[in-house]
Give the backbone structure.
Amino acid sequence: MTGDKLVVENLNAWYGKTHAVQDISLSFPDKRATAIIGPSGCGKSTFIRCLNRIHETQPKARAEGKVLLDGADVYADDPTEIRRKIGMVFQRPNVFPTMSIYGNVAAGLKLHGGYSHDEMDRLVIESLKKAALWEEVKEKLDQSALQLSGGQQQRLCIARALAVQPEVLLMDEPASALDPISTARIEDLIFDLKNQVPVVIVTHNMQQAARVADRTAFLYLGKLVEVAPTRDLFERPAEKLTESYITGRFG
Amino acid sequence: MRPPKRLRRRVKSAVLLGLCATAVLITLLPLASILLECFVNGAGAITPAFFLQNPPPPCNPGPTTPCPVGGIQDALLGTLLLVVVASLIALPVGILGGIYLSEFQDRPLARPARFLADVMTGIPSIVIGVFVFGIFLFFAEQGWISSFSITSGYTGAVALAVIMIPVVARTCEEALRLVPVSIREASLALGIPRHRTILRIVLSAARGGVITGALLAVARAGGETAPLLLTAGFTTGAITGLSGWTPSLPVLIYYSAAGGYANTTQLAWGAALMLVLIMLLISVGARLALRNKFGGRTA
């Protein structure tokens, strides 16, 4: 299929002997948000952690299969280069505790090097605006990132990920640690962001998937059960298993 | 039956609380006593001249003979030099070692290295003094260094460094381990290479603990006497850099207190008070270092 930014072919992943992701093939179109849903432990987090090769940084974790970014195999490239192109936002806000708000957003740029001060300033402001945080922090960029609220910290993490100008943005349950108002803000943000970069969002919240995603994939016990346009998946699931999950009969 | 049960619980609680309080008192008593004794006996020796003179010949004051207390000028300088040079060796080695122990735990060398570091912190410091003395003696026998260099400030600094390295490495390791995995992942996920993640993100997040560990090691080295007896030597004369016999505060206290003469005993008390004050200063420094630049406390 043309227009697919990221294509996954026969991906398998293990933690030690646990086969967490089993032979998943899935593609992610450009400028769309794709949600990955499924009950806890179904391998959805492990799956997206394989896409930017952060999975393999854990002890005893390994992955096999193909992940193609614009047709080039992610697993044949330098992992640091891949992680720069495929950004990630985690479940809990993980700001750098000793850095200022500005320092957090600029961290990726600074540690990659090669950016002038003006460029860095411009990218930091641009990223904070994209993450809908600029208005709240523009007066206190040099203050500790830790004094922000949980929701603000998570948007700061999104700004930090956007600052290095990724081509894909992965989000691993980005709102699960946040209150409803902060969650709504993050969801609005995803809705805007997907027009610039394809977004892959893991969520255990089906309403959230329905609100933000164009396409939704359902994973169960490490396998891909079904992937379809979000509306179709929720209204006319092709698989019995999907139907029982979305109607709340298990999970 | 409820009131007696409640009473029994209250009595038990009071007894245990009393035991805890007593234990705290027993712990603090020696400390308070040391501080008090040092102040009472040592404060009198501390005059401007105390910092500008060296130890005098021992004597007891007679009705006509003057018997000066002298000072600690070169011993203080010697201790500073020894600790600075020892830190220059021990801090880089210790911090890099700590990084290895914490960030490369899955490497086969990590476990034995951690075990050895733990054993090393338990080795009596006099043994480390003998060990370093032996090594420099071997160097001299091979003709690599002059035999005059066996007893020198450099040998003393190496001995202190050997004492410091495992302390720095283990505290650095513990501080780095306190940094959550999520911070490392945040950095790696930005495409920041692992070495920069460790040096710029993880080490920075752990800097409070690392600085505390370093100051702890400095304080430990500054108070060591036994390893210096065999390595740095001592002199009541002027210090001549680290290439010769190098006086230090702990060794000065050791020799001055031993004679039983009035003036050197007074000098030893003064020197002891200085040493305690320096340690206190370092520990306050460690606390200040724990405050990060935003005014809050970090790990």
Observations:
- The two ends of chain B are 49 Å apart (CA to CA).
- The CA atoms of residues 90 and 162 of chain B lie 7 Å apart.
- Chain B has one domain: 73-290.
- Residues 295-299 of chain B have pLDDT under 50 and may be disordered.
